[in-house]
């Protein structure tokens, strides 16, 4: 996958491929990332790319022409690509979006600053995506988050020991809890079933915990799922045990 990030802070967004899974994806040859400085497309000697808003009011607006030229240059550099504007007004960036984007040959990520881009440039944008219902001062952190999340789905980026399909949201549920050594830590023991060596039992326990965690923390996700017979039974068990233990 080829990704171009259009930004006023190229040195900031380039950091995302210096660490962790995105770095592994680059080393494995499945991801290339370049940052393109929008100021390179400014017609001015002082490299300005913003101007005052028509209609008055506070803040500055990113001009359409440099943005449009930066998008065209990115397209010419990486070929077919989905153009994404990071925006608080966009669709929420979900795991479904991440998986869909990971199948694309190229992504062009447009990072806004100030009051955002001149609306007319949105013609060249395929989709607006948001990191959540809050306002950041720029699109760089959401773009970096998107690159990180997408890299987890690129073949060869994750080792055998980690797997994106087991993560939260992949099957519509939150992930089950994880434990590592020591077996006893400050009076808390690892659940016995995980020490049993019985793979079927462990799988059942993990599914039950995943259903339970989703029920406790994100009931909205459960509402959108059709549970099969075994899942329904396991969730009922979890709820019964939670109320016996005073958890509800
Ligand atoms: N005036 C805009 C509004 O209220 O919709 C906010 C502009 S914000 C200060 C500047 C830029 O930060 C945006 O153009 C966008 O690229 C980015 N941004 C801010 N919050 C974001 C979010 N929740 N998700 C994605 N991008 C965001």
Write up what this structure looks like:
By secondary structure, the chain is an alpha/beta fold. The chain has two domains: 2-151, 3-Layer(aba) Sandwich (Alpha/beta knot), CATH 3.40.1280; 184-244, Trp Operon Repressor, Chain A. The protein is built from eight helices and nine strands. The chain has helices at 10-13, 20-27, 64-78, 95-102, 140-151, 199-217, 219-223, 229-244, and strands at residues 2-7, 32-37, 50-51, 61-62, 82-92, 106-111, 127-130, 184-185, 188-189. It has a five-stranded parallel beta sheet. A two-stranded antiparallel sheet has the order 3-4. The longest helix has 19 residues, at 199-217. The structure holds S-adenosylmethionine. Residues 86-89, 111-113, 115-116, 130-132, 134-139, 142 line the site of S-adenosylmethionine (SAM).
